[in-house]
Amino acid sequence: MADNPENHTQDTKQENRSGRRMRTLRRGRIVTNRRSSSFDVTVRDLSGTGAKLKLLEVWAVPTEFELQVLTPSGDVELAAHCRKMWQTGVLVGAKFVRPPRP
Predict the structure, then answer these.
(1) What's the CA gap between 25 and 75, in Å, rounded?
(2) 31-43, pLDDT tens digit by residue?
(3) pLDDT of 11 strictly over 80
């Protein structure tokens, strides 16, 4: 099986995180501009301290934003104020500034 260079690059970045993340494919939403703008994302990894997100297309995610993790029916399961730690194309590493709330 061939090694994917993109995964290798992300593994290097993930070593800096402080919590263990569980892989997931959850629907999520980045909310910005005092809740006047939102963008759909896929939550790829999730932990008590942060998340790795995949955007639908490349755009400059702001330094701070609210992440909402959604239920399959589209309701907000949890929300957290986040700080962008890194961004490479459509992948974003986010650290929770405050613990997520239901």
Answers:
(1) 16
(2) 999 999 999 999 9
(3) no
Q: State the sign of the Cα–Cα–Cα–Cα dihedral 12, 15, 21, 22.
A: positive
In this prediction the pTM is 0.79
- The residue-averaged pLDDT of 61-75 equals 97
| Backbone angles phi and psi of 6, in degrees to 5 | -60, -45
Q: Which domain holds residue 38?
A: 5-96
- With tokens 């629907």, the residue in question is 27
Domain membership of residue 74 (yes or no) is yes
Q: Which residues contact 78 (CB under 8 A, 6 or more apart)?
A: 68, 69, 100, 101, 102
Which CATH number is 39's domain given? 2.40.10.220
Q: How far apart are CA 34 and CA 40, in angstroms?
A: 16
Measured CA to CA, the distance from residue 69 to residue 14 in angstroms comes to 20
